[in-house]
Amino acid sequence: MESNGKGGKLQVALVTGATSGIGKAVAIELASRGYRVYGTGRNPSQPGKADEHGIVFYPMDVLSETSVYETVKCVIANEQRLDVLVACAGMGIAGSVEDTAMSDADLQMRTNFLGTVLAVKGCLPQMRQQKQGKIVIIGSLAGRIGMPFQAFYSSSKFALEGFVESLRHEVKPFGIDVCIVEPGDFSTGFTAARKKSGTMGSPYSEAFQRTISIQEHDEMHGSDPQVAARAVAGILEKKKMPLRIVVGPVFQKFAAGLKRVIPAKWFELLYKLYYRL
Ligand SMILES: NC(=O)c1ccc[n+]([C@@H]2O[C@H](COP(=O)([O-])OP(=O)(O)OC[C@H]3O[C@@H](n4cnc5c(N)ncnc54)[C@H](OP(=O)(O)O)[C@@H]3O)[C@@H](O)[C@H]2O)c1
């Protein structure tokens, strides 16, 4: 195996959603630590060419099975191995359950949940053959705590929690380790890219506007994506990765812990007060 130039073995990493935010920061962090990094987005500017960090971008739309499998195939054809997958690609849809069209609910689940599943399925055969691999899934704190007016986003991230718990058991015998990283609020392109279903005149309109403005304010004043990137890189360096970790602002890490220890009705009351629901 090739050396990474830092006295270790060269590790090949694929980072989905590496054109922006957390995925971009993860790709740069891994490249700086000596990984050979392949990044993806739907329309990368210079596909197949290494950028200034040495990251090679390929197009990948996680809504398309062919696109995901073809890109993974390309990386493996180039490197004959694949050691790490960091699945970051995702987006958010907000609105009341009643106001959100089923086509948007479907898009949310296909992007965040099934899109991640596809990336994992694409990488598993190679990792299994190598008897070695590490998979980090970017979930969300919203996958531990149901966010008001983000029911479908939360559902897509809750789904990933169950997926990772199950997957870990299945792939451990093949030397593959899996971890879900749960970011709190980070200042990224996520807020501007969010799709909103706030029908004018809807009985939910006022509460939705109030809630989403608090949520978006928190995101825009959230942590730097580099914090998440360093956490992901740190986890990958561990011999055994934890099942899940929360990253982000301290009070949000506290909220995740609090949910585990206080009665559900108290936790619900805290959210109700915070969002003035
Ligand atoms: N920011 C936060 O506060 C926060 C909190 C918790 C969890 N997260 C999670 O962190 C992950 C990264 O989000 P971010 O905050 O870094 O947002 P971001 O800056 O908007 O980045 C999203 C990335 O996902 C890619 N993407 C979106 N739809 C895609 C599709 N259909 N196929 C392929 N790639 C797609 C985008 O690439 P292109 O647009 O170039 O295709 C982009 O690279 C997401 O899973 C998000 O749910 C974010």
Structure in words:
The chain has 277 residues and is an alpha/beta fold. It has nine helices and nine strands. The protein has helices spanning 21-32, 65-79, 102-130, 151-171, 190-193, 205-220, 225-236, 250-261, 264-274, and strands at residues 12-16, 36-41, 56-59, 84-87, 93-95, 133-138, 176-183, 195-197, 244-247. Helix 1 packs across helix 7 (225-236). It is globular and about 60 Å long. The chain starts with 11 loop residues before the first strand and ends with a helix. The mean pLDDT is 96. It binds NADP nicotinamide-adenine-dinucleotide phosphate. NADP nicotinamide-adenine-dinucleotide phosphate binds at residues 17-23, 41-42, 60-63, 88-91, 111-112, 138, 140, 183, 185-186, 188-190, 193, 219, 222.
> Which superfamily, in CATH terms, is the homologous superfamily?
NAD(P)-binding Rossmann-like Domain
Per DSSP, the total helix count is 9
Percent in helix: 40-55%
Unreliable stretches:
none
Instruction: Compute the number of structural domains.
Output: 1
Q: What is the CATH class designation?
A: Alpha Beta
Q: And the CATH topology?
A: Rossmann fold
Strand fraction equals 15-25%
User: What ligands are attached or bound here?
Assistant: NADP nicotinamide-adenine-dinucleotide phosphate
